[in-house]
Amino acid sequence: QVQLVESGGGLVQPGGSLRLSCTASGFTFSNSDMSWYRQVPGKERELVATITTTGSITNYASSVKGRFTISEDNAKDTVYLHMNSLKPEDTAVYYCNARGLFLNSRYEYDYWGQGTQVTVSS
In this prediction, what percent of the chain has a pLDDT beyond 90? Predict the structure, then answer.
């Protein structure tokens, strides 16, 4: 059974830090592009960060670049999102995403975690 199990969310003060974790099972993690998305009520889900399998290339949304870092540990089938200098506007539900190869104009698979709440407030 495919699972993406997330942890690390919670309440933090502005300027603080959190590390989100997402542990994968049921598919080949090492062949996957991993991403973090976030969503707030009334807004579309937005891409926060991506790390690719080939070359470990990372990409970040402009709003988090320089503050957030995505990384992965293949031995643990886990992807992390290190969040520093957190702002109230970072408050959202954060989702882990795994995608397979893009071929024949589609992804092999597109899996999602359950989401974890991050609240930045004083």
Answer: 89
